[in-house]
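If your schedule permits, I should be very grateful for your opinion on a structural question. Please examine both parts with care and let me know of anything in them that strikes you as inconsistent. The record follows directly beneath this note:
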Amino acid sequence: MALTTLFPPESTATPFATFATETAATPFATFALSSTEAAATPSSTIAPYATALNGVNQPMNILFRNAIWWGLGVLAMLILIIRLMQRAIAHSRHTAAMGLSGEAQAYWSKNRYSTWWKFKRHMLYAPLGKKRHNREIRLSSAGNIGTIPSRFHAILLTIFFLSNLAFLAFLDYSRSDRYSVLADLRGRSGVLAIINMIALIIFAGRNNPLIPLLQISFDTYNLMHRWVGRVVVLEVVLHTMAWAIVKHAATGWSGIWHMVGTNPFISWGTVGTVALVLILILSLSPIRHAFYETFLAVHIILAFIAILGTWIHCEVAKLPQLAIIKAVFILWLLERVARMARLGYLNYSLKGKAWTSATVTAMPGGASRVTLHLPRHVNVKPGSHAYIRFAGIKYWESHPFSIAWVEHKPIHEETLPRQEKETPVEKQLREPETTTDISFVIHAQTGMTKTLYEKATQCQPRQLTLNAAFEGPYGGHHSLDSYGHVVLFAGSSGITHQIPFVQHLIQGYNDGTVATRRITLIWIIRESEHLEWVREWMDLVLKMPKRREILQVKLYVTRPKNPRDIISPSSTVQMSAGRPKIGYILREEVKAQMGAMCVTVCGPGGLADNVREVVREVQDVSVVDFIEESFTW
């Protein structure tokens, strides 16, 4: 039997009457017995406890249901309050510092409250153990079992797990009939499972409104989705076992199989349970990573079957929790509809009768530079990512990639001004309509990315044109405009996440709209030829006005073919052979800090863990915030 929230039917007896009635039972037992259980006394047969609401403590179920909802709501409100405070501080810092020099921003570089930097060091930025967080735990070169949650995430998940465990275990064990206790467990586990499905579906959505509201990355919600899902499956299995044990005691295996085969209530409940158990098995990290594309498609199908089975399971019995499972289905459906609507709107233009096309260029070092030519104008913030599909190359798959470059192109030539002096509104009205080109660098790994690269290499001149679909942009909710000092770490193709920030901050520096006075970009690559991935865009960045006043680039080639070929082009663009000393670099940046500092990283998990370790070490020295961009799956 799948997810069942077992609310009692209307009864003329009130809870106060139950308390008032003098019985030989203890006060706790009196509260634990609902009005429906009165008909199922210890002298009754076993069978009643396998049907309907007999033995189910509904007042306690409702209490725990409310506790979970209130708990999640209060947590969301606390995070929202903290985020609003951070935004208020960032806004005041931005407005106060954007007209000041770097040296004059010293006020914003000092810690004012020791509690906050200690919280960041020991909780917010801390890994679960000593260092490892985003570095994958590999079983072999071909597979891994994922990453370890951070300390803060682990605490939240532990509280969630233990609270659900406590709610499940809080039963009246003083009952004389043990099957009555199992019936109560059946009801309790069903209630908790279906309530947790609300959070499960919300956390899974790419269009989750909580992402921009709370400024929590989809990667974090995806982590929560996986662990909440495991708890839901555990509760569903307990729900089914509690029913099956009682039913077996009453009728044996023949009675169980008869109900599964002939009773729609039990049949569809079983369908939902089996679907959820299969999801759990297939979602185990080694299986998920080895067959991710297949897993994703099967996961969606099984999720639909589980929701459908639960819906019919509740519909047949006319259970009050039917409204909850309908809400779960609506949330699941809205996410699918939103994604399809976004795909249609962004990739097709009725005016131009055009669909998004992609130009794929095979680059040295096993990477593809992909430029999507969208048929309409799309605004993209720095730090955004998008999901891409390619026609003819596993089009059912979509993978997230950081947006490296955005260029808006006019559909028609710009007209000349009608008068010598025109207002900004008149200029905006005169400007032509534009379409948007969005570029990515996709490092060939396995599956779709490898196939894409191979197809491009087979073309002459190593360039492929095909239809594609753009879904996004997502993310981009972190603003670096209020920081006087920004340090950007990138590993391999992670440079695509950092380039838009560099371009935006230099332009803001020229326009006088940002507080940033120093940018340090550290890019670690394996071979020198990887520089070709972004050379075209970096050349444009390096030619921007006043770039030398604000930007310093440090390139590290870890496996150069000839170390003598590693030559620094200028004093502001330095190249070195070998791996960077993260600790030394960051401590030197802190010594020369201008205003509040933000350190961001996008790259392999090992690099992110190294950067995080040093950021935590300098928390007591000055204001240093940390942002990590990752796509763990």
About this structure: The first helix runs from residue 15 to 20. The longest strand covers residues 463-475. The CA atoms of residues 153 and 224 lie 8 Å apart.
